[in-house]
Amino acid sequence: MEVIIKKTYEEMSKAAAQEVARLLNTKPNAVLGMATGSTPLGLYQELVRLHRNEGLDFSQVTTFNLDEYVGLLPDHPQSYHYFMHENFFKHINIPKQNIYIPSGNTSNYQAFCSWYEARIEECGGIDLQILGIGSDGHVAFNEPGSSLTSRTRLKTLAKQTIDDNARFFDKAEDVPIYAITMGVGTILEARQLLLLANGENKAWATAAAVEGPVTGMVTASALQMHPLSTVFLDDSAAGQLKMREYYDWIEEHRPGAPQL
Ligand code: F6R
To answer: Considering only CA atoms, which residue is closest to atom 1 of ligand 1?
Structure first.
């Protein structure tokens, strides 16, 4: 696991966007895994800027989103369908038919989840998965206690997640209790993982994920078992890392590091 700490949210977002751009420049038809929430907004803004100003091309890209609330229609302003369209997809040149987001309104969740998993496979698997982290250490909506081999499924949100996400809704009671989410096992099959975290309220979860034991109680800790995962942090999210000096030391010596 590589840990890259930047001073600000903007620098963190730009560094993560460079990683995505690097992939698209070598593999224009890459399959990207997308996350929602406040964390990746800066990354999406930077990708949109690279598209507009530097011609970063999404015409052959396919995307799969991590999760969606159950019960919200795609045009609901708090749905992840709406979020992705407003904050990213409508600003780039990705074909509509290449966009996959879990349905929060299917009549058969089990069948939908199996279809979603199969579709990922048919598209060749996810090349790069973007991830945020919950204050309880979740990735996607894999709440504490999730199996580290879990697949796409229906999941009950934890009280802490509902409280955290209440800021996007008029009142906490409006936050859906159920979500459909890729599993930890699904996420670990992506060829590359980028996890982003910013702000002091992510410091505990980040330290637990990066330096704590691998446990289903902090599902982001499963990234430790992935061969190619990078964690991009801003200064405050890195606040509780014990090995902070080492991560900074690596960064300082990166320009002279042997080329792989
Ligand atoms: C969203 C997702 C969640 C968020 C996490 C952090 O698609 O999968 O795991 O990444 O809840 O949310 P923010 O970024 O709003 O703090």
So the answer is: 36
Does an H or E element contain 229, and which? strand 229-234
Is 35 a pocket residue for ligand 1 (Cβ < 6 Å)? yes
Active site residues: 67, 136, 138, 143
Sheet arrangement for strand 31-34 = 2-6, 229-234, 192-197, 128-131, 31-34, 62-65, 99-100
Cα-Cα end-to-end distance for the chain = 16
Amino acid at 156: T
Q: Name the closest-CA residue to atom 3, ligand 1.
A: 140
- Cα 197 to ligand 1 centroid, rounded to whole Å: 9
Beta bridge partners of 232: 4, 196
Q: Which residue has the tokens 């904050």?
A: 87
Continuous segment of H or E residues that includes residue 180: strand 178-181
Q: State which amino acid sits at residue 202.
A: K
DSSP for 19-55 reads HHHHHHHH-TT-EEEE--SSTTHHHHHHHHHHHHHH-
pTM over 0.90: yes
CATH hierarchy code of domain 2-255:
3.40.50.1360
The C-alpha atoms of residue 68 and residue 182 are separated, in whole angstroms, by 10
Q: pLDDT tens, 130-149?
A: 999 999 999 999 999 999 99
